[in-house]
Amino acid sequence: MEIVLVGLNHRTAPVEVRERVSFTAEQARRAADELRARGILEETLVLSTCNRSEVYGVPPESAHDSLKALASFLSEFHSVGVEILFSSLYHHYDRNAVRHLFRVSAGLDSMLLGEAEIIGQVRDAYKSAHEQGATGPVLNRLFQGALEVGKRVRTDTQLGMRPMSVAAAGVKLAERIFGKLAGHTALVIGAGAVSEQVINTLRDRGVTDLFVMNRSRDRAEELAHKVDGTVVEWGDWQNALLKPDVVVSSISTEDPVLSRLVLESAMEARSGRALFLMDLGLPRNIESTAADIYNVYLYNLDDLSSIVSQNRQAREGEVPRAEAIIEDHVTKFLSWQASVELVGFVTALRARLREDRAAFLHARLAQATHLSPQDREHIESIMEEMLEKFLVQPAERLRDERELRRKIQNVEALRDLFLSDREKR
Amino acid sequence: MAWAILNNRRLDARGGALSPASGQKPRPAENNPMPHFFLFLTIVAYVFSLGSYSRYLRAGKEISGRLGTVFLILGLIAHYFALLDRARASHTVPYHDINGSLSLFGWLLALTYLGLELFHRQRSVGAFVMPFVLAFFLAANLTAGDKLSPPPAHGAVFAFHVTLSILAYAAFALSFVLSLIFLVENSLLRNRNLTEFVWRLPPLELLERMSRSSVLVGIVSIAIGTVLGFIWVDRLTGQYFDPKYVVTLLVVLLYAVYWLLSRTTAWRGVRASRLCIFNFVIVVLSFTVVNLYLSHSHRYF
User: Fold this and answer.
1) Chain centroid to CA A196: how far?
2) Nearest chain B CA: its distance from A178 CA (Å)
3) Which of A286, A287, A398, B252 is 20 to 30 A from B100 via CA?
4) Secondary structure class of A372 (helix, strand, coil)
5) A contacts of B266 (beta carbons < 8 Å)
6) Which domains does chain A carry?
7) Model ipTM?
8) In sequence order, what are the residues at sequence separation of 6 or more whose Cβ sits closer than 8 angstroms to the Cβ of residue A419?
9) Tens digit of pLDDT for each residue in A145-183?
10) In the CATH hierarchy, which top-level class contains the domain B27-144?
């Protein structure tokens, strides 16, 4: 019951290779079907994100060199040269494959350490493969374990708790002032990619009313339409600053667009209600002296970047704890795997012993012509009873004693010792 | 309230106290054995509560926060029985000496905090309040009490007056702590001193709301307590003027002003918090200087 993994990620392959080897949902399903149809894998799951493409599988017992077969399949499926692909691929099996998946799910293998998106991607990939029938008992258990690990690492450590982008850090700071942002209003100055990212983060945190202001009204309207916001006339600061609790500015400008004077006037108009300003522009969009105004909280790129840097260090500090949790779950999975294999081994051994017993009795009793049919039956039942006594205690111990199962790591050796090749199948 | 029942002695026509109905002579405070079991239980529960809240503040684990609340509730129950036992042992109310008053103050501080925590669903402040609760309890029970004879009984009205007044002080003390935390957090945020600590604290707006809630509890308690005090004074001595009344009314006025101003956008934030801290300074002066040196009827210890 081997587990194999072949894949590439942002560490081993440049984006030009990754984009050629990525799978759409449809391609993932097709690849899974083909891998099984060709007998390369009995169970299969394709995990493909913008930073990795990986194939997890359980090869048939009779398979030899599944890793090479998988790598060749990927090359053929995506029409990528073998020499290009092989230099980027990594492969793992059994314990290392399990550990790798658990680390991926926990966010330890992500470009952004501890990011949460990956666990959703793992869940979606598993769900799709499961519905397709591409997974079996091993991959089902493996991926359920991966999701459990991902959740536990994020719950029991600080790994996923701190914002790792400037926009997220700024929004988190706003929550220090206002608490939950649900029901609060925001003004976003600028209509570029950064502004859109901030808006998405604000919406995720529950900001209801959103205003957009930009020099180019067309672009403001385009963004406002996209994010269900309202356009505010460029330069109409008196009105624009009346309602919002959070103001985010991210435009290209030589001089600040929001001066201290304008903000003082605005604060008076809003009766001094607290105002959170996030200046993501470079050069700065908001005069730094505005930070001295009562109930104004101003943060620029440097401030937010230093938060992100602190958070990165804090997350890195949590890695040993996360690794310990992962190792614990790897051991549990392998213990389960061993118990399943052991049960299979005991069943196969019982069948083998029964066959041997039957053959043995047939050969010996053929010569004992003096025995009656009842005597023969009696001897057979004694031998059957002896066989069961021989096997039942070990089987019960394997079922009940987790420590014993943990000790028996190499079931393959037991199978080699007691079973023939035919019986192993 | 149990000590109001304990204090339920017949009064003469002017409200003066008669000898205890049971005919038993009250035992002096120093002869009453401390309820060691409840004492021990209270300390353990409060210490565990403090530890759990501190862990919650440091690590953010929800289970630690919940344990903090559970231990706080257990501590409150044990503390209550410790107070009751103390009162029964000395056949008088628990606040008849400074130690008893401190213990009752600590209990009411913890109770008020628990109410705020449950109402606002915020546990981060527990780690700041529990040290005070523990300190007051330890100060009350591990130091030698004054060797006073129990005062004559003053009736249930008086008992409620004192208890509600101490509740008010506890609520104002809590708002003081909350305002301090607000100022510290605000300072850290404005100075961009964004350490681990800042992320664990409650949001500023929530701290303000909790402080206002606490002050409201204090205003209502002190208002009712003061009215009851007037009723008792009228029945007992017929004396109406005491500097304590003036200061108490000033305290009520100051906190009412705080409560109203803190809801306006112009005063929200640092200004309101500073006012709350100033008000508490007046409360401390009222409880110490005024009681000890200026008041006729509030010199109990």
Assistant:
1) 26
2) 5
3) B252
4) coil
5) 271-272
6) 4-156 (3.30.460.30), 166-308 (3.40.50.720), 337-424 (no CATH)
7) 0.78
8) A345, A348, A349, A352
9) 999 999 999 888 878 777 778 888 899 899 999 998 999
10) mainly alpha
